[in-house]
Amino acid sequence: MANSLRGEVLNLYKNLLYLGRDYPKGADYFKRRLKNVFLKNKDVKDPEKIKELIGRGEFVMKELEALYFLRKYRAMKQRYYSDTNKTN
């Protein structure tokens, strides 16, 4: 049981680290915060608590993805619709 959770935690860390490259406050800021959060919870042994923390991490991952998609959407919208506003 512990090995499968360890793999999930490592996978979550890697995915969050990858997503943190484009974080608005910078990759270094995100990496430091991520490391601190994972180190704070390194002594948790209860499998249910670990699953709860993994769920919270997956929620953060989804929120980051939504943030990035919104930023890309706004940039595309600005590129394509800024010309029509200038002509009116």
TrEMBL record:
Residues 8-61 form the Complex 1 LYR protein domain. InterPro entries: Complex1_LYR_dom, Complex1_LYR_ETFRF1_LYRM5, ETFRF1. One of its GO terms (cellular component) is mitochondrion. Pfam families: Complex1_LYR. GO terms for biological process: negative regulation of oxidative phosphorylation; respiratory electron transport chain. PANTHER family: ELECTRON TRANSFER FLAVOPROTEIN REGULATORY FACTOR 1, GROWTH HORMONE-INDUCIBLE SOLUBLE PROTEIN-RELATED. Belongs to the complex I LYR family. This is LYR motif-containing protein 5. It comes from Neovison vison. The gene is LYRM5.
